[in-house]
Amino acid sequence: MKFYVDHNLGRLAKWLRFLGFDTEPRRLTPHTQLPPWQKGVYYLTRQYSWPRRQQRPDLIILTGDEVEAQLAALAQRLSLPPETWTPLQRCSHCNTLLRPLPSSEVEGRVPDYIAGRHRRFHECPRCQRVFWEGSHQRRIRHRLAQLSGTPREVGPSSGGQEST
Fold it and tell me: pTM here?
C-alpha cells in the first residue's frame, strides 16, 4: 500500500512511516490532476474543496485535527488492522526501508555511550541516518500499542533513535 500525503498532513505522514507504510509527501490542491486510479495507492488531504468530478475512492479527505483521529479514520476506511503494520521498518525522514547495520560500523556515527550500550543498529541507505532501540523507539512502540488497542508494544525491535 502506498500513500501520497498532502503537505498539510506532515505528522500523519511520519506516523504512517512509523507503521511501515510507503508514504511520500505530495502537494495536493483541488486543481491537481491525479493519475489514473491504481489499486493500493491513496491520496490523503484535509482540503474539502475538491471538485465533485474528482471525488474518487483513492482520494481520502480527512477531517480530524489530531494524528490519532486521522489514523483511526484511515484505518477504518481502508481496514488497516495492526497485523498489516510493519513498525519502524522505514526511515521516518525519507521513507526508505531500513537495513541492518553491524555494530562494528557505527563508530563515529553514534555517540560512544550508545555504541557501547546497544548491539542492534539499522541504517537508512538513502540518508545514512542510524537508528537503534532507544527511549524514542520505546515511546513510539508504546503509542502504536495504544493506537492498536493492544496492551503491549507493537512489532519486533528493528530501529529507533537516530544519530543526527
Answer: 0.82
